[in-house]
Amino acid sequence: MQTTHPEDPTVGYPGISKLRDQMMIMDTAPKWPKKPRFRLKEPFLKEIVQAHFDKNPHAIDVNISSFSQFDALLNNFTLKYQGKPLNAICEDLGLNIKDNKGVVEKVMAKYFGSNEAKLKNVELFSKVGIIPKSITLSPNGKRTEDMKFDSVDFDEWTENETFEESAIFDYFSNHNFVFLIYEEAYKNAPLKKNKFIGFKRIMFDEDFVDRKIRDLWTTVRNLVVNNELKEEYIRLKKTGEIRYTPTTNVPMTRVNFPKSTENIAFLRGTGSDAAQKTEMVNGIRMYRQYFWLRGDFMVDLLDKIDYL
DNA sequence: AATTTTGATAGCGGAATGGA
DNA sequence: TCCATTCCGCTATCAAAATT
Questions:
Q1: Is the CB of residue A45 less than 8 Å from the CB of residue A87?
Q2: Is the CB of A237 under 7 A from strand C?
């Protein structure tokens, strides 16, 4: 752009917003058409502070400073293991793993040089605000599940007055997401048989965050602030009988948070079992809540992106 | 150092829904 | 009407953190 308009840097501004997902340590704000300022990405600053206090003894330094290098590292993994089932990859990496749900993450952590099970212990990821997520496609490339993200801190959610100050805004706006994409060997195949397909890296579209995530934030916030949360029994539609959970034999209940039927972004609870509902909001005891995005939306979104 | 609790990841499973 | 898909509260598992 400089070569065509060296005297007028503003002509390049629209392109800067488009370059956001290429920039690892810097970011620009606000976005086009407003005049951009440069700033350090917030997760990077946090990591610098953390490193100072040596909070992260397991972190390794793979010495990567740009996304093209990062992408290349992921591409090497893809070239080696594309189409291979998870158990074969484990074997090749020297990981002795039973059929458990932690494998997906453990494999990646190992590849990035950490023997820890958690990818968040890999400094590279936290340093530059990369959030890894795995997604499994059905044999015909459709969604198998919806996607769970972070848990909800209701104090934070209601304390902040504006969406732009909220944690969920920061989560979706200021982070890169790397998706580890797997495909089922056959319908409902066990996890370790799933084939590794590849990586995709995205930043969520500003417009999507501003509409869908803002909707979720506003709706949930209003429900809690206005004390409009309600819990009700789940009843069988045919007979009207109350449903009971299979393991704890407690009545199943629902809370009137946004559901996946009405919204791409919604809340869903999680916990050890129905007898252990630890969260308390508006006097209602409930599972710890997480925000989710619909699986079909995620698959559509990723379909538009190229593999690394 | 051993044990318990918490919480994060990823997915299960039974009922409702929808298409052929 | 049958069967596949979707919905959504619930659950298996593991490891980190807290507690003893």
A1: no
A2: no
pLDDT greater at residue A184 or residue A42: A184
Q: Which nucleotides of B are covered by protein (CB under 7 A)?
A: 6-17
Sorted by sequence, the CB contacts under 8 Å of residue A202 that are 6+ apart come out as A21, A176, A177, A179, A301, A302, A305
Q: Is A307 exposed, middle or buried (0-12, 13-18, 19+ CB in 10 A)?
A: middle
Q: Which of residues 109-138 of A touch strand C (CB under 7 A)?
A: 116-118, 121
- Cα–Cα distances in Å, from A248 out to A47, A60, A178, A252, A274? 42, 43, 37, 10, 7
Strand C closer than 7 A to residue A60 Cβ: no
Task: Report pLDDT digits (tens) over A249-265.
Answer: 778 888 888 888 878 88
CA nearest A135: which of A90, A113, A105, A96? A105
